[in-house]
Design goal:
Elements: H1 2-31, H2 36-51, H3 54-61, H4 65-87, H5 92-105, H6 109-115, H7 119-140, H8 146-149, H9 162-185, H10 189-213, H11 217-237, H12 245-267, H13 269-289, H14 298-313, H15 326-331, H16 347-380, H17 385-401, H18 411-425
Helix pairs in contact: 1-2, 1-7, 4-5, 4-16, 6-18, 9-10, 9-11, 9-17, 10-12, 11-17, 13-14, 14-16, 16-17, 16-18
Length: about 450
């Protein structure tokens, strides 16, 4: 009798911790871009629910290569932080924060464990991320949404900048376009379809306007360079299906959404053109006078800092200068015009300078691992085609954006990365068994001897 009751209690305990972990997942997805407190609480709930059952967690994670890579990265970053502190003892806090930020990126296995490649859960996480993104605009502007339209930075307390927002909005726009058919088919009748189409159009127009208002050329280029090939590939892959009645509905929906996006962009033509005119003049000056002679513009500062730190990287090419050393290296530059920059504004160069070739290999292995799982899931049919395109397109947009942007160790960006890589890597756990509540003990069925 005691053994039977204990079996029932353990089953209910598993259900409780599973629900706790899933609650933490959705809490984290919603608050990822809003503020560190809610996001940290979500991660804490996921971790608590995992370690509360150490035997089960050990069985699940002991052979997970992502966990092994996370441990290896932690050891590498500790060694790098020690070297950085010796080279720049006055930047100890910066070094520690940067090391923790880099290490954080390797923890994408945590949300992956709770998503488990479950299709409904994947869709719920994506929807929660979109809701959190929209809520972050209200939160970081104090409800004054005209500040977004005006451009510039907001939410400096959690480092949510206009450059980062351009990336998040670009990925959200790609998701809206790819998943629009799913949204429309959930509604029946002319009124239902009309409501769904209107909601999509309004949301798309608002996000396009926000993307333009960021005035981030890197985000614009990343969206066009990442989203357009993905959408064209999707259309060509399903060209035959688009001739069916259901396919014609998808074509009409896509055409309407694209026309709205183009219309919003056309209204802002002067704003967009002025940003690229400025970049063109800067590039002409840099080609004429060299990178060190680039003018004092946003792009000019980038070109000059890239030239400066690239030379310093050659002094420690294998292990880099250590986490958080980009800032002191910039301050050591004889070019005082770039001293106001907090980082290098190039994700690839930042990795090489701070972590060296060894760190670049670690980060490359992390990317390869998550993408390999996503590709394998797509080939097996575990990952729906539109979800595969969305996640793959998000990786591509992020890769292009990183040429002129860097926020990997900042709280909102690394939360964004944990969710993106976590969704992709979650298909490693696809089909993991879920505990079911025991509504009836063996003793009550007369099976206990």
């Amino acid at each position: 009798m005691i053994q039977a009751t204990r079996s029932t209690v353990i089953s209910k305990r598993d259900v409780f911790f599973d629900r706790l972990g899933h609650s933490g997942l959705y809490l984290f997805a919603f608050f990822a871009l809003i503020g560190p407190t809610g996001a940290a609480l979500g991660k804490l709930l996921m971790l608590t629910a995992l370690v509360a059952r150490p035997t089960r967690a050990w069985r699940r994670l002991r052979r997970d290569p992502a966990v092994g890579m996370w441990v290896l990265a932690g050891a590498f970053l500790v060694a790098g932080a020690v070297l950085a502190h010796r080279r720049f003892p006055g930047f100890g806090d910066v070094t520690v924060d940067a090391a923790l930020g880099w290490w954080h990126l390797f923890a994408f296995w945590l949300p992956a464990v709770w998503i488990r490649g479950d299709h409904r859960r994947v869709m719920h996480v994506l929807g929660t991320m979109l809701a959190g993104l929209l809520a972050s605009f209200v939160y970081h502007t104090g409800g004054d949404l005209t500040r977004i339209v005006a451009g510039g930075r907001w939410g400096a307390d959690v480092e949510l900048s206009h450059i980062g927002v351009g990336l998040y909005v670009g990925v959200a726009l790609l998701g809206l376009l790819l998943l629009a058919p799913r949204w429309l088919t959930r509604f029946r009748g002319p009124w239902g379809r009309g409501f769904a189409a209107t909601a999509l159009i309004v949301l798309l127009a608002a996000l396009v306007q926000i993307l333009i208002a960021t005035e981030s050329r890197g985000a614009w280029i990343a969206f066009v360079g990442g989203a357009v090939p993905v959408l064209l590939w999707s259309g060509l892959r399903h060209a035959d299906e688009l001739l069916t009645p259901a396919g014609r509905t998808v074509v009409i929906a896509w055409a309407a959404l694209i026309l709205v996006a183009v219309g919003v962009a056309a209204v802002n033509t002067e704003r967009v053109a002025s940003r690229f005119d400025d970049a063109e003049r800067t590039l002409e000056s840099a080609l004429r006078d060299g990178l060190s002679g680039a003018p004092d513009t946003a792009l000019g500062y980038r070109l000059r800092v890239w030239s400066t730190v690239a030379e310093r990287w050659t002094e420690h090419p294998i292990l880099g200068w250590g986490p958080g050393t980009a800032r002191p290296l910039i301050l050591e530059s004889p070019d005082t015009g770039i001293h106001h920059l907090e980082h290098i504004h190039n994700g690839y160069l930042q990795v090489l300078v701070e972590l060296g070739l060894a760190g670049a290999v670690l980060l490359g292995a992390m990317l390869w691992l998550s993408l390999r799982v996503l590709w394998s899931a797509a080939r097996r049919g575990d990952c729906p085609y539109d979800i595969w395109l969305l996640l793959g397109g998000a990786y591509l947009i992020t890769a292009i954006w990183s040429v002129t942007g860097f926020q990997a160790v900042h709280v909102p960006w690394r939360n964004f990365w944990l969710l993106l890589a976590g969704l992709a890597y979650s298909y490693r756990y696809a089909g993991a068994k879920q505990p079911a509540p025991a509504t009836e003990s063996r003793a009550s069925r007369g099976e206990c001897r």
